[in-house]
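Section 3.1 - Work completed
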Amino acid sequence: MKATGIVVEYNPFHNGHLHHLQQTRIKTNSDIIIAVMSGNFLQRGEPALVDKWTRSKMAVAAGVDLVIELPYAFATAQASDFAKGAIFLLDALKCHSFCFGSEEGSLEAFQETYNLLLTKKDEYNTAIASYMKKGISYPKALNEAYNEISEATTVRLVDLSKPNNILGYHYIQAANHLNSDIKPETIQRVVANYHDDALKTETIASATGIRKLLFEGQKLSEVNAFMPSTSLLGLTEWESNNKSFGSWEQFYPALRLLIIRSSREELGQIAEVTEGMENAIWKAAKTHTNFQSFMQQIKSKRFTWTRIQRMLTHIYTDFTWNQLREIDFPTYIRPLAMNKNGQAYLQSIKKDLQLPLVSRVAASKKDTQLQLDIKAADLYYLGLQSSYGESMVGSDFRIAPIIE
């Protein structure tokens, strides 16, 4: 069987994701689609709208054959490490190719961009350092340096100011660094961009737009046009059980407690907390009772909103610099959900896997990366502040991979 990999968060699974999934199967002529999916905390440093089990069931119901969890350390990392962890797992799963959505839509442009940055690596890094000395954020410094070195070329390059283009570039970079034979493909995003609001006249909206509507108090019936019926069913069941969706506003009371009870020195030991941000975070937590005002106080030109949220995610999960430095690549393959085809594919490659296949976490509980996943999952459920969330603590030990 021929397998293609995709890297997803599905927060939540919507019609744009369905388009990507369907076009991936057509473009790659694959028998199996494997999704590497973030767990309960995401790359932009925020809690997932609904948990990984609900999102993985949505994925399989919509046509994904096999969902694998991207470990916490990679799921909450900057783009390069997020991509490295995901592509490493897809390669380990014997995928023939991987296919990502992008604003660009042209694989050739991504390849030209990768070649340019490879040949001008020293010049690029020097320019990045120069821009960062001016006090701007790392992502903006990357973009400014990229614009500078790309001025002299006439080939078609990727716009690396676009979020999905950035991830796509890093997927290709990761595959090259791994010396993998896995073949990249891309599909252009349609209608809605990553940060766009949801428009009532459209049937495709960004996950960001859908979440915004829900957090503004819109009912699920008012966003059902943007997602398959199976996703609406999953969100309805979640809301019925839990009464609310995951967000930083909901998690903030627990986060604030953890910040205030810590010393500034302890906060400085947390992964990604750097350049005195522990002081700003601690001071803001002392005075702000809601997440938005807290973030408004500590945001700056130096640090993007996303990077600050990743710091806060690591504070919430107590993930330290020392732990981060010990992690290089994923150390296991953990299935979350699959259909019969995905199950058959996994059985067919099981003996050839170079990584342990973890179906029962109790059998692999000594793995430090897996322990991070388990702890992050439990803390996510506690952050929901509901009886349902409390009952889900320890669920990683109780729930086996879902077979639909």
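Second construct:
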Amino acid sequence: MSKAQDPPRGFFPFGNPFRMLSPKGSELSPWLLSLLNGFESLLAARLKKLMPKNKDDILTLSWMKLAMESLCETHNNINTLITDLHLPVSNWEGKWVDVYLDISVKLLDLCNAFSSELTRLSQGDLFLKCALHNLKSDSGEKYLQARSSLDSWRQHVNANNPRIENCRAVLDSLVKSLSLPKVKNSPKGKVLMRAFYGVKVQTVYICSVFTAAWSDFPKDLFDLPVSVKPLWAKEFTDMQSLVNGEIRDMLSSGRSTVLKELESVDASVEKLYPLIQDGVAPVEVESFEGYVTELGSEAEKLSQGLDRLLEEVDSFFKMTLSGRDVLLCNLRSSDSFSGKAIGEDLDCQ
């Protein structure tokens, strides 16, 4: 793999992980192959849904919410697959567990960063509400206060968030984990590791899109090459190509933001600002009232979209934390004597 700061980022610094699924003299049973194909087919369908029908849908809050929902579904599917494999945690190789725990910590860090940015943007709604309240007045003093609120909103939403800036390092480290551990003499383990690979590819990519959307920095967007063997490879490649191309076009166009709802509010502010900059009643009253109504509508869409996306990010955080806790509990159980106290079992549950 090339260095993290040098695009493109390679996938297989330690060899091709898909070689483990076709070792000499070894084949997966029909049952295991069915489980793997079922998981990968669901992932393919999920990625296909992320392919926007219209390029204007890319980096809308509704598309980002759909992407986060997709991640939650994929992580739910991997939990189901683990159950179907009947592969107790006690049979997991130590390196598998280490990889899982390390990745889960990084995902929690990313979720915290995304939640902090969504919360920060939501706090800007207070400035817009104050501006709209004052814009409904006929007082020149109120127009000056509205202008001040709009200035504050601009400064607030354009401020840098250190947590988002730190996401790049976290994502770079996750890319390094995309190389899978070798699995010896465990067909179930091979299926599990290949499924984990698909989960990690989708997770790293979606998180890189979120980071690029909030940092407005094209280098935060990943181009992930994938093997052609997984059933989801084509859907992922097509989706990544379209989304990355459109985001890079937006970032190179000089826009103040690439987040569509935020851009719409900013456009409404741009229309209103010249009319109130002197603190006098606008001459074009009809146009002015229309701009105020438009700002109120766009601000409401932004506020609702941020709230809904924050709910999905929180759901993903809780899912990741819950899965980590279950794994740790099962590990403790497997290392304990069979006759341990009932209270310990209850604690784990």
